[in-house]
Amino acid sequence: MSLLKLIGVLLDYPREELWQHGQELLQASEDPALSPARRKQLRRFVQELLDSDPLDAQDRWLSTFDRGRAMSLLVFEHIHGESRDRGQAMVDLIDAYRRNGFELDARELPDYLPLLLEYLSHRPQAEARDWLQHIGHIAGMLAARAAERGLPHALLLEILVEAGQGKVNLAVLRQRASEEVRDDSPEVMDRLWEEEAVRFGTDAPAQDCDPPHRSPARRVQPETQP
């Protein structure tokens, strides 16, 4: 298992199958591309996850990534918000998947970070690095917010920043994160729901911007050749 695939699996919703492949995950955490310190940290993250109860891990994941938008794993949401530009960006990404022989095997938004990482794990190293540099500021901000909230997932996101070999200044992003008002409290979430009016007809958002279903299996699969 490549490092990018491992990070994607660990960032994804922790389905019960994850515990069935614990040894494979632990072995993958020893990737020689990582520094000895990072390997030790990543192995500890994996072991603590495997030692946890699946239902507890799933509940923590939902509390981390499915409440508010600041920790969303939908990459283009951080770039385009809910604008139509985001829809076009996702269409372009799906086209890139298909041009390289991959298809989504579940109805899922293509900018979901674990899905993108699995795709990149099959691409040439230079291409994957370019992508990681392109989204480095997003991964960096997610890492900073995770660290500010005391979440262990900060490690995974910092590794992505480092893998991109970009110029993301995590110290600056951590300072910014420390000054943000959190958007995952019940009060803030209720207010956001009240402010977002339901629209119908021609004013309704396009379906390509529908929120994803976060828990089902998500995989990029190579197309079968006839």
From TrEMBL:
A GO biological-process term: nitrate assimilation
Region annotated Disordered, chain positions: 200-226
InterPro entries for this protein: DMSO/NO3_reduct_chaperone (IPR020945), NO3_reductase_chaperone_NarJ (IPR003765), TorD-like_sf (IPR036411)
MF term (GO), any: metallochaperone activity
UniProt cross-references to Pfam families, sorted A to Z: Nitrate_red_del
Keyword Oxidoreductase assigned: no
Protein name in the entry: Nitrate reductase molybdenum cofactor assembly chaperone
Keyword Lipid metabolism: no
Lineage: Bacteria, Pseudomonadati, Pseudomonadota, Gammaproteobacteria, Lysobacterales
Alphabetized UniProt keyword annotations: Nitrate assimilation
